[in-house]
Recover the amino acids of this structure.
């Protein structure tokens, strides 16, 4: 007899190890790959950064609000960060286009006073810091950090009656900040900023409610060399072009269930489901930095309307046909181009959904991710897939093929 009581879809940002290694490879390969501007013989200016970040835990779920073994809400936290970076100077075109950013790698450590449940997370990550606006002695920047955190305390799906935010030892680290840098001397900068930090294990192991932090950041930057002299060249005109893409995106989604067994005890378990999407679309690159377009997705989502059946007191996946899991969606597309890398955003809308008894049926879906254009028209990347503009769903690793052409028929 089937006694399915509750289905919890707790799927947040990013499977961690493979995702991190893939993105670090793309960033490192892309930022200093060959460009139309040949590099000079001198080296980039190097810098180190040391920051202190006091802040607050954002109250996004019951555990941090007080439903935990301590019966206390999480509030104040503090963290420390060290970074090593390279100042770009415009010797490559993308550097000038993005305002001569700083990029590099960092290490992060956080501490929650009075906590005995979460652990002392440490993180390593890659970052890029680029200006919104630059003046002679100071600038306002945005910074994006992405990496892996570890040293979390591991927990089971429903441990001692509590739903813990992170059940695994390792989790994804994501940080976004707005900051101001003031030049104090030839080698020192003062740094002041505001940051949002997100931790999640991508449902590698449930529970995965995630931990979100808001903080201020204050620190000092030291430059090992003289400040770079920025190279400014006349930007070459961009010849607008079209591209047609075919992308295959396999992924895995985990769904958790609570159920009542033959002894009337409430238990919890989780199953993995395959998700496979074939996408095709057309983009128009309208400048050195911007692509716009749209496309259609054909998906088999094994987790859509997922259910269980109790067999001898043990839950098993309920049987389903291909038609029960087949979905069709359409999406507009926006890509921010950085050399051979694209940062993409695609808000999608389902035009076909099978009927299901599930109460958590998506009506929209969204992609945010990174894509690399290899030689030979091959593309590869990774996306975060969300739904209803509010819930992270699963991770898509993708590979595909693209054809590009210009509207040459408009010219003689």
């Amino acid at each position: 007899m089937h006694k399915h009581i509750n289905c919890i879809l707790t799927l947040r940002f990013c499977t961690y190890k493979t995702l991190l290694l893939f993105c670090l490879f793309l960033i490192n390969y892309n930022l200093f790959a060959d460009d139309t501007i040949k590099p000079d013989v001198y080296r980039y200016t190097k810098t180190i950064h040391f920051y202190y970040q006091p802040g607050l835990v954002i109250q996004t779920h019951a555990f941090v609000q007080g439903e935990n073994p301590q019966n206390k809400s999480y509030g104040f936290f503090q963290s420390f960060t060290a970074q090593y970076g390279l100042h770009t100077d415009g010797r490559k075109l993308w550097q000038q286009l993005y305002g001569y950013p700083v990029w590099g790698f960092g290490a992060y450590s956080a501490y929650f006073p009075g906590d005995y449940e979460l652990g002392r997370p440490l993180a390593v990550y890659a970052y890029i810091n680029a200006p919104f606006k630059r003046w002679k002695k100071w600038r306002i920047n945005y910074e994006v950090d992405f990496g892996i955190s570890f040293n979390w305390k591991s927990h089971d799906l429903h441990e001692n009656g509590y739903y813990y935010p992170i059940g695994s030892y390792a989790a994804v680290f994501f940080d976004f900040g707005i900051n101001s840098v003031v030049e104090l001397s030839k080698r020192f900068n003062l740094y002041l900023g505001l940051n949002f930090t997100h931790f999640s294990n991508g449902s590698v192991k449930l529970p995965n409610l995630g931990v979100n932090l808001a903080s201020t950041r204050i620190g000092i930057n030291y430059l090992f060399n003289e400040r770079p002299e920025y190279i400014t060249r006349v930007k070459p005109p961009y010849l607008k072009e079209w591209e047609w893409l075919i992308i295959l995106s396999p992924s895995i989604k985990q769904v958790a269930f609570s159920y009542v067994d033959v002894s009337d005890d409430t238990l919890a378990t989780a199953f993995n489901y395959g998700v496979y999407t074939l996408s095709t679309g057309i983009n128009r690159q309208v400048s050195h930095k911007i692509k716009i377009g749209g496309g259609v997705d054909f998906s088999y989502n094994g987790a859509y309307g997922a259910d269980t059946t109790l067999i001898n007191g043990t839950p098993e996946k309920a049987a389903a046909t291909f038609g029960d899991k087949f979905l069709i969606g359409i999406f507009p597309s926006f890509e921010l181009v950085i050399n051979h890398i694209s940062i993409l955003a695609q808000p999608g809308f389902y035009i076909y959904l099978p009927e299901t008894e599930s109460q958590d049926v998506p009506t929209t879906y969204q992609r945010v991710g990174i894509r690399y254009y290899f030689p030979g028209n091959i593309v590869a990347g990774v996306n975060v897939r969300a739904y209803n503009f509010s819930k992270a769903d699963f991770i898509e690793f993708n590979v595909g093929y693209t054809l590009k052409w210009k509207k040459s028929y408009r010219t003689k």
Remarks:
- The chain is about 5% helix and 55% strand.
- Residues 17-31 form the longest helix (15 residues).
- The mean pLDDT is 84.
